[in-house]
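Quick one: structure tokens for this chain, please?
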Amino acid sequence: MKILLIGANGQLGSDIMAVFGTKEIVPLTHGDIEIADLEQSRKVLEAHNPAVVINTAAYHNVPECERNPEKAFLVNSVGLRNLSEICLDHRITLVHISTDYVFDGKKSSPYSESDIPVPLNIYGVSKLAGEYFVRRVEKHYVVRVSSLFGKTGCRAKRGGNFVKTMLHLAKTKGKIQVTSNIICSPTFTKDAAAKIKEMIVQNYPSGIFHAANGGFCSWYEFALEIFSQAEIKINVEPKIEGEVEEGVRRPLYSPLISEKTRPVRDWREALKAYLIEENVL
């Protein structure tokens, strides 16, 4: 089975490459394919003739999406319209990575696949529009993830992620403030990648799936757990954020659970595995 991976050099893409192995995956980066360009994308996909396309490409700088909605919709929505059209024409399975930001955070318990999305910002709206395009493909998986951390780091954050940021601040600051009222499901990209492989290899039925680590916490609690596991002493103070920050409305509560797949390990266990991989433990 030939699999084409778009965004192979990203934080999640790198771990998808790792769990599948290089023999099964054809890696593509932004230099190889521009999903916002229908004809260029068609040429690339037809040249490779894959059975499966996994798309991890996205414009996910949330404040930038708010300032530049045209680009957000071009990549996150029109790009998926293009991929879905090509996959429809050639009966290719399309796997697309979406986000917890399709929800508004008004619920008091974790969001499952059956909950109705109500995005608050341009990023969330553009990602939800992309989901709808993907769902018209005969065989498809929309995989929502949350608060990713992985060895490669996020390209939009210059290779960083929340865990790396906290470890860096611990070396340079005596005291830090971390948001305590935004609740999420921290997710190790290696675990999300393994779940995506499971869906494809076990031929799950088409649909929407949540692939986050088990449990949930605030960013403040996440930071405390990082420092506890790494045995770092630092003064961490909780900070309250409003629903609107930097001109962007964000969900204050967006942890994910799945009604459709076996549970992924707890985020604390995943964090430990990541810290071991990073040679912190």
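The radius of gyration is 18 Å.
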